[in-house]
Amino acid sequence: MTAAPPPAPGAPTPDEVVAGLSTAEKAALTSGADFWTTTPAPRAGLPAIMLTDGPHGLRKQAEGGDHLGILDSVPATCFPPAVAMAATFDPELVERVGAALGEEAQAEDVHVVLGPGVNIKRSPLCGRNFEYFSEDPLVGGVLGAALVRGVQGRGVGASVKHFAANNQEHDRMRVSADVDERPLREIYLRGFQRVVTEARPWTVMCSYNRVNGVYAAENRWLLTDVLRGEWGFDGLVVSDWGAVGDRVAALGAGLDLQMPSAGDAADARVAAAAEDGGLDPAVLDTAAARVVRLVQRAHAAARPGAAYDPDRHHALAREVAGRAVVLLRNEGGVLPLDRGASVAVIGEFARTPRYQGAGSSLINPTRLDTALDALRDLAGADRIAFAPGFTLDEDPGDTGALTAEAVAAARAADVAVVFLGLPAAAESEGFDRPDLRLPERQTAVLDAVVAANPRTVVVLSNGGVVDLAPFADRVPAIVEGWLLGQAGGGALADVLYGEVNPSGRLTETIPLRLEDTPAFLDFPGEHGHVRYGEGLFVGYRWYDARAAEVRYPFGHGLSYTAFAYSGLALHADGDGLAVRVTVANTGDRAGREVVQVYTGLPGSRVARPPRELKGFATVDLEPGEEREVTVRVDRADLAYWDTRVGAWVVEGGAYTVEAGASSRDIRLSGTVAVDGDEVRVPLSADSSIGELLADPVAAEEAGALLSGDGAAGALIQDEGMLRMLESFPLGRLADFPGSGIDRSALAALIDRVNAERP
Ligand code: BGC
């Protein structure tokens, strides 16, 4: 947990500052002064602070402002975007990135970094998937919390975004994400909950969209009941840029700060509402005090004149990128490349890398490595030939000549390495991708290259997953290089030559076809609504429940060595599960394994995916080395959201625990008994006979109620009859002629049983 230092001794508390302000000054505090700074309160000696994107580098604009990455920003290290960071499955590494971001923020006098984004990748088409961690809430929550810890450990605030259910860009400013409560709690909010409760971010950014019909910015249930009431959030809620339509309603719901500046007239409307009864003045005081507190804690932690070392940060960016690369396929050991081999590097991306997405996270990098230069540095320029193969503007003019050049280079080399990827314009905010395809021009060049030299390696640059069908089984090796940040070129060369043994893992499923994906029939919705019809079954939860084939499963990623699992030991106690497993490196080079632990509960009384990730750990092993790895699963992570009682409940039973190298490469499994929470659902006349008999206290008393001479008593003695009657509501049974159930006795029993509830 990281908390900012308290205000300097003797400094006024936020409430004291607010008490000295006029209504107009308080209202002004609840909106920015401009695009990136808060409004100061000079009379109270309160300065402004600066908030800046985020999430994988600083986009500090020196002049002007925009939230779409259009205008220039000061140079900053472009770390790998979340899609790549997540593939490391390594919170310690992500925390180091956070710390580096914090250092850069301190050096640039930035007080809050707008990130991480922990939204779930509901559909692979979402235009901003590159900025999000995973289709799984545990991965997003654990890594999001790590980033927050890193940033805030350096005395800079983080802003967890986009809260909540912002899972598409289409119509993002208005669309209502219509989600049932279980998936909302168990999938879409769970990552936020982990970040808020474990890392205590200074701020949370509410999203543009509506959640079940209510704008996030005006959603009291979301911003107050859940975020503050249930999770204990004590920081500030800031709006996404332009997410507030009605600040008075938003403040009432729990928003504190509207960004960017809404102008003097909007401030005046808020002040008038606080004076004429349209807004409870106490609500305005609370929001203003939260702004004051943020400003105070940010200034108390600020280090004017701080500097950072761009070389060290570039090296960290390369380390993370190397850990993020996922080796999807490697038949016949074509990788790692032999240093003596001649290599034809093909594809413009090798020379002009695609290393980040567009939009508000667009970083102006301090420098930029290309894979082509890095490969030449590693193997010697004479080993590496280059042919661009295609142009990034898809200019059809010289297609023939470019293809011929690529084919000639491939034919003359021992191995061809072809860099393919999505065009920059395909991935940004504000719109989604229409399909998963790579540009046809690129796959056509690849076809020609493979025909000339079957020893072809494909290296991909993409933020969202792409359709691999055109070459999945036709090339011996596929390297998923995501968007790897400014040092990605070097990292790719490291992996291709085995300087780094790949250990990245998929945090999202690569499907066979778009039509197979869970949200296919409900994306991106219509007429302002998108229905999350797949419910809990997001990502691998869907494919596993339907026993559907996938191209590459969640958690997949190869290594240049091999790992063996043994000795699964399970232990359950009041805090959860301890899962121990021994992993051995059985190959001939050092490597890193990502041990994944999944649980399931066969025969559960509620809908459940067959397996859900509940823990993971990385382990570095020398050849021949083995180690015991312990993965802890908190009891809270075994809970489901019980809609009957509106609470998290651990269902008792024999849980399956699986340890493996991917969701479809389970190496060991066992069963462990877990005690369930007692759930006492309040009884009413609408409760069924079955529910009455299932309640331990009520069941005892029910005997007396149902043992009269009436038909009901006789019927429930008969097992076959009981089955038919089980779902019969008590009140309606009582009304049946001759049932023998006394209405007032029933009412008294219900009252007694409910009163005895803990
Ligand atoms: C994005 C946010 C970003 C903000 C400020 C919005 O368009 O959704 O992620 O932090 O702009 O640039």
Molecular structure report:
It is a single chain. Residues 1-5 have low confidence and may be disordered. This protein folds into four domains: 22-298, Glycoside hydrolase, family 3, N-terminal domain (TIM Barrel, Alpha-Beta Barrel), CATH 3.20.20.300; 310-545, Glycoside hydrolase family 3 C-terminal domain (Rossmann fold, 3-Layer(aba) Sandwich); 563-674, Immunoglobulin-like, CATH 2.60.40.10; 689-755, no CATH class. The two termini are 32 Å apart. With 758 residues, the protein is an alpha/beta fold. It contains 23 helices and 24 strands. The chain is globular. The structure holds beta-D-glucopyranose.
Can you summarize this structure?
With 758 residues, this protein is of the alpha/beta class. The two termini are 32 Å apart.
What small molecules does the structure contain? Answer: beta-D-glucopyranose
As residue ranges, the low-confidence spans are 1-5
Name of the CATH class of the largest domain:
Alpha Beta
Structural class label: alpha/beta
Q: Nearest-angstrom radius of gyration?
A: 29 Å
Approximate helicity band: 25-40%
What would CATH call the architecture of the largest domain?
Alpha-Beta Barrel
Instruction: Strand order, main sheet: write it out.
Output: 9-14-13-12-10-11
The N- and C-terminal alpha carbons lie at a distance of 32 Å
Oligomer: single chain
- Total number of helices: 23
Could you please say which CATH topology of the largest domain applies here?
A: TIM Barrel
Strand content: 15-25%
Looking at CATH, the homologous superfamily of the largest domain is Glycoside hydrolase, family 3, N-terminal domain
Number of strands: 24
Mean pLDDT: 95
Q: Could you give a short account of the major beta sheet? A: 6 strands, mixed
**Number of structurally distinct domains:** 4
Basic shape: globular
